[in-house]
C-alpha cells in the first residue's frame, strides 16, 4: 500500500485503516505489510503550530498525527516471531518522525544510495 492511502481528512479513517491492516495481516499469516512512501503518513510531528506560524494546527494535521500514533501503537504491540513482517520504504528519511525510527519499531534500516 502507499502511505498516502492512509491519509484522510475524515477523523479516524486513517487510524482505522492501520488497525484493519495489521488485524488482516495477523489473521492471514504468514504475511508481509509493506507501506511504500511511509513518509506520507509518518512525517515528523509539529505540535500545535507548524514550523511556520502562519499554518495553524488543522483537522488534516490532526488526522495524520492520529494515524501515525495508531501505526506506532501497532508496531509497539508487534511480535516479530508470529509470521508477519512489516516493511516501510521512503526516499525522504529525513522527514520521518523520530518515534517511528526508535529502536524496537524497525529492526533493520537499509539505505540504498544512488
Automatic annotation (TrEMBL):
It holds the Pfam family AAA. One of its GO terms (biological process) is proteolysis. SUPFAM superfamilies: P-loop containing nucleoside triphosphate hydrolases. GO terms for molecular function: ATP binding; ATP hydrolysis activity; ATP-dependent peptidase activity; metallopeptidase activity. This is Inactive atp-dependent zinc metalloprotease ftshi 1, chloroplastic. Keywords: Hydrolase, Metalloprotease, Protease. The keyword Hydrolase applies. Residues 2-113 form the ATPase AAA-type core domain. One of its GO terms (cellular component) is chloroplast. Gene3D superfamilies: P-loop containing nucleotide triphosphate hydrolases.
